[in-house]
Amino acid sequence: MTYSDHGGRPRRGSAPSSGSSRSNAQGSRGRIPSQGAYHGPRGTRQRSSAPHRSSGPGYPLRARSINFQSGRARRLSANRRLLILSALALVLLVLLIVGVSSCVRGCSSDQGTSGEANPVDARVAVGVDEDLTRRFATELDRGEKLAQIAANASAYENPDLLELALDEPAAIDFVAAYPEAEKTAQSYGEDVTVGTVPELYCWDARWGNVDYAGAPLALTGSGPTSLSMAYMALTGNGDRTPADFAQAVTDAEMATGDSCMSGSFLDGSGALDGTGLACSTYTSNADNLTQVLDNGTYILLEAQAGMLTDATHWVIVVTENSDGSVQVYDPTSPEVSSKPWDPATIASACDTLYALSASDSGDE
């Protein structure tokens, strides 16, 4: 068989052709056995059954691995692997988070259930000092009641009560109970000593629910409450509460003005007759204030808005301290009542000092 490459040159060692290439091409081609003639792009060669060894200048057949996977298929496969790995990573992360959360809850539960409860208040951790525990308990109670007030805000006809609860933590208990409370007054029910001024507040449940000047006395009763404090200290009697003086002011038609009590009720109207009290007035200044207190009397004054608090209201000056400061009881503000004041500051808050004394003392 003759084989010619592209140059038309016969290959050495090839057998003579027995016919033309045309006739060979047109002849019938037999089936190629598994080990025999090999038909490739350069003709037909005899395949040896033995391992191939090159014995001449021919072209040896090299084994080559065939990759049936296209580039696109490889990319898709890589993407699938990446997606699978990402999904596994996400699952592991979720399991980790769930495990940590369960551990935290379990540890917190163990800590909460282990040991004994605080004997004063179970809401406070064991081992906390008793005084601190009580202080925490008070604030926790106030927080719960403030939440109750907020939830029932529509039950309050006067929104100023809601503001009172927000502005004065000490009034939260009163405001929380107000919607269901009886709107009547109760007796004072405590011991009273001459010369000792009891510290009273307008929102006390014993009188704060009573209506006065068109609103609960808790909001409007600074005048009657201050007057009641002076009365108890001067007479030693607890029979006239702020509610009693509020009724007297109302009957005298003097529940007027920004403070809801006219100063005229104290001076010159005769409204104090029968109460055992007498009143003298002085121009407000620091010297008059301290001199009147030295005489063993108590001073009521109408503090203007923005001086001690935001609103115009009545307070009582009860004593002069050893350092020259004065003590003020403000029935609307525990903060004002809790600290000493410079006499000039207090005197500048008003125009008139109303000095109250016992009517049988001769100091009228």
Quick structural gist:
This protein has 364 residues and is an alpha+beta fold. It has 11 helices and 10 strands. Helix 7 (222-235) crosses helix 8 (242-251).
Spell out the blueprint of helices and strands.
Elements: H1 21-26, E1 37-40, E2 43-46, H2 71-113, H3 130-151, H4 160-167, H5 172-177, E3 211-212, E4 215-216, H6 217-220, H7 222-235, H8 242-251, E5 277-283, H9 286-294, E6 298-303, E7 313-320, E8 326-329, H10 334-337, E9 340-341, H11 343-347, E10 352-358
Antiparallel strand pairs: 1-2, 3-4, 5-10, 6-7, 6-10, 7-8, 8-9
Structure description:
This protein has helices at 21-26, 71-113, 130-151, 160-167, 172-177, 217-220, 222-235, 242-251, 286-294, 334-337, 343-347; strands at residues 37-40, 43-46, 211-212, 215-216, 277-283, 298-303, 313-320, 326-329, 340-341, 352-358. The strands form 3 sheets. Strands 5-10-6-7-8-9 form a 6-stranded antiparallel β-sheet. A two-stranded antiparallel sheet has the order 1-2. The chain is elongated and about 110 Å long. Helices cover 36% and strands 13% of the residues. It is of the alpha+beta class and 364 residues long. Strand 7 and strand 8 (326-329) form a beta hairpin. The protein is built from 11 helices and 10 strands. Residues 2-8, 12-28, 34-39 and 49-55 have low confidence and may be disordered.
